[in-house]
Amino acid sequence: MADEGAVLGALRDAILAGEFAAGQRLVEVDLCERFGCSRFSVRAAIPVLASEGLVDVQRHRGARVRVIPLDEAIEITEVRRLLEGLAAARAAQRVTPAEAAQLRQVIAEMKAAVMSAELMRYSDANARLHALIRRIAAHETATGIIERLRAQMVRHQFALSLVPGRPAVSLAQHERIVAAIVARDPDEAEAAMRDHITSVIETLGSMPAGRPRRQNAGPVPGAGR
Description:
CATH class of the largest domain: Mainly Alpha
Oligomer: single chain
Number of helices: 10
CATH topology of the largest domain: Four Helix Bundle (Hemerythrin (Met), subunit A)
């Protein structure tokens, strides 16, 4: 039988992978069967995921995968702009030759994905590049906050990758970020990262109005992937 930590990790990964639809109810008996665990393990995992912003828990109504409305996604990204700018600047101060080579390799993968129109491959490489920059920066507080915020943005990030022409625009922005980090120019690295995330905010703001917006009261209606 899976332990509490394993159940928490597996349920978190499933939510982030989109295996549960936004707004979908998390039924204890179904989760126990899926993860081979006790109800106690599921009940221990739910409050943790709620604290991470991935699950909504309502009295007498149970837990549901949290819907992140578009206006909240924009606010989250505005906070990320500050923190990821800081991480890029720190990375430029700390980067080693071996790490610079790793950054260039990921950029090469992103370029190949754009050339072959492989959106999922590009999205994966994009996430790895940002994670590598955070690792080089070694700012634990910023990293913890960024990773929690990014987890709440998974569905919107996938939607961004589907915007026509967006991967090519994003690639050029990432090339600028990496060039600044490799050149050990913290001011330019921070500016490049902030400009990139400003572009993300602008793209989110231009997305269809039919996407869910924050409600003044009560739960946001569920939506599929």
